């Protein structure tokens, strides 16, 4: 619901309200973001707002705006907090003062051209602010839906003048939360340890999370939860802040003197600039803001539901995801028809439905020194080409998927030999070579066009139902010969716009191909990527224990079905740890399921286990994609890991857990289930127990006493309580 009359604005979602007003001096002041209030409360909030808003006679005071809760911060006019945007005019002057000009309310949500965006919302409020000293206007966008706790923010910067300006910073949003005292959870990490949740109090000054890698990154996800002091997993208030952006980003929290806590973020402003010609507009990426008064768990459930309902392609959002066998860890580059056929033939007997041929099928790609950029089949390696493999899949009733790394090139490739200028390099500067490869200059349309034609040629020529889109290095030497010097600050953003352009064209042209995102594991796992890729390879680490931590952290702000999770071989290739096959299967079942090993080399007993695990997953995959997830036991801090998913009508639940390390004197311990209906009676299949939802949540179930790294599941089904 949106109420707007030009002086006050009230946005209402399922459990939150967001209130703003125009002060007497024309500033757009934020009044409230939190639990639900009504329009009648705004008069009262305005009296508090009056104490913070500048009066007419001190509007030119040097610090009049410093403590005001405002909607978009500007620079060099008395608000000394980090600005939300900075604009420079032709003479270099940067002072800006944005004041209210007009508003409009539209039905639905604006579809942003060239950027991933929310696909649906009930209504959008657009408020235009105008700079007092230049011809710059900023339109702030707020999209709301009655049945969601996600508020979508974004901004459009307009040059309504006659000369070009330079945008030096253009964050997407700003919110101010009163009283300063909050903690921030960020999802930090590195390759193989992506999205570890870390909580720390926000102290005075600026807390900043960011990526400068040209990708959202393994190291810092474009997400933060701002938590009140008493916020826990299931109780208390918090705000999710999540960028729909896959490039270099920043999210900051600033607690300045006694002012509110200012949260803002968007495209990273380090080395960013954008020349905005007369009459042109610049659209920032969207941000998903989520309010929860049911702790982090409530926040995660609201975000997951929203991402599935409004971000992921509706064709795939709730559809059964393919159960994949991928050959990467089975063969790496060393494969031929026979090796692949053995895997395919075995997969078919074990209930798997899609074979994905990973890296190494094209060009002279026998190791990672050559071939990237040459998207034609390596017929020396694959006798009969791709069709031989596809035919084998078809004979076995399997679908076929193929790996690409569209953004990359090896110097040892036909593409580089023909078009060395396609690579991101600065002549005279030795390039940084990560994994022996260079990044293609996706700021150039001709480069994107070339790759588009190469990939689409393969997709048109063969029966391919699945594409894994990988990206294995970050950007250095961010320079393009084709950009004029004054536009070099646009490079990183233009790069990701090129990636989005390719993804948009390919997914539109091949709507029946399921595209999975990947970036050397989970290096580009973000809400922007999910607009094009319904699921993303979560991490290259598939170890039966490490994965519990990665998936736990990822579940903070992404749906389970967005996480591509595979069972791999032991000892694990990354950690050398050995965990039971069943444990690896159970952990992977909390996501989009698959395998990544040489099935043909398993013992008969192991094959039987794979068959059973696959069959069990088929029974629960509906609940995994549609249900609500509850995090129960945190593997970072506990000696057990446990998560559960409850169907929307609460008639069914799936609990999956793992004993991490056994401890001595481990007497009977209970785990309290969550999310069930207190008044329903459930049968726990594996334990042959019947109990009420109330008993299962308030008294709990005994934790199984099982050895280190062993796992268990409980399937709960509502039953007649008579
Ligand atoms: C990194 C991915 O995360 C792996 O799954 C695999 O596809 C390799 N790249 C192939 O080079």
Task: Count the E strands.
Answer: 38
Number of helices: 14
Please bin the fraction of helical residues: 10-25%
Roughly how many Å is the radius of gyration? Answer: 26 Å
Attribute tags:
alpha+beta, ten-stranded antiparallel sheet, 722 residues, binds (2R,3S,4R,5S)-2-(hydroxymethyl)piperidine-3,4,5-triol
Could you outline the blueprint of secondary structure elements for this entry?
Layout: E1 2-4, E2 8-12, E3 16-22, E4 28-35, H1 42-52, E5 85-88, E6 98-107, E7 123-131, E8 136-144, E9 150-159, E10 165-177, E11 182-188, E12 196-201, E13 205-210, E14 220-228, E15 238-243, E16 249-255, E17 261-267, E18 274-276, E19 281-283, E20 287-292, H2 295-311, H3 314-317, E21 324-326, H4 328-331, H5 337-349, E22 354-357, H6 385-395, E23 399-404, E24 408-409, H7 414-418, E25 438-439, H8 445-461, E26 466-469, H9 491-509, E27 514-517, H10 527-532, E28 535-537, H11 546-554, E29 563-568, H12 581-588, E30 592-596, H13 604-626, E31 628-633, E32 640-646, E33 652-659, E34 670-671, E35 681-684, E36 689-692, H14 693-698, E37 701-702, E38 711-719
Parallel strand pairs: 21-22, 21-30, 22-23, 23-26, 26-27, 27-28, 28-29, 29-30
Antiparallel strand pairs: 1-2, 2-3, 3-4, 5-10, 6-7, 7-8, 8-9, 9-19, 9-20, 10-17, 10-18, 11-12, 11-14, 13-16, 14-15, 15-20, 16-17, 24-25, 31-32, 32-33, 33-38, 34-37, 35-36, 35-38
Helix pairs in contact: 5-6, 8-9, 12-13
The structure holds (2R,3S,4R,5S)-2-(hydroxymethyl)piperidine-3,4,5-triol (DGJ).
